[in-house]
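Need tokens for this chain, all 187 residues.
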Amino acid sequence: MNHVKTGGYLSVDKREEISDWYDTYSASILSFILLMVRDYQQAEDLTQETFVKAYVYRDTFKRQSSEKTWLFSIAHNVTVDYLRKRKPLLVLKEIFLIQEDKAPLPDEKIELKEESHELYKGLSKMKDSYRKVIILRKIKGFSIEDTAMILKWSESKVKSTLSRALLSLKKELIKEGYWDEEAVRRF
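Here are the structure tokens for all 187 residues:
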């Protein structure tokens, strides 16, 4: 693609590139953000904000990582910024009070390989860093290196956090009575 900047406006080629990226990655980014914020409308808004930022900052993308990794890094930052801006009481309530989800999200709104309500419930009860690393490594399939870039962690932190997160998820699934060989195969 030709990347030409004329008169402060992005060329048609750059708009097409961002549009192609949106077509390719928006559903995956939406499901990543949805697992973080647990609000479909907000996840849609944050997904849109991710691609607006990608459009605005496209010239800063130096291709040191894949566009997917770069976009997920933007999505992660946008989501973290949103969560930080929320009212502190809501954040504390979400972190410290485990609430039963009376109406699970429809399968078509979350495109996880497992399509498992039990896994969603288990993930929703985990601390944020554990949930992020499991989503990126095990559900979205990012490498350790890409996960480290997205989260701005060291590779060793990704490995150790993933190990602890998987043990925590297993304990949660056992506690809820969901751990069996079928659950293991889906994950």
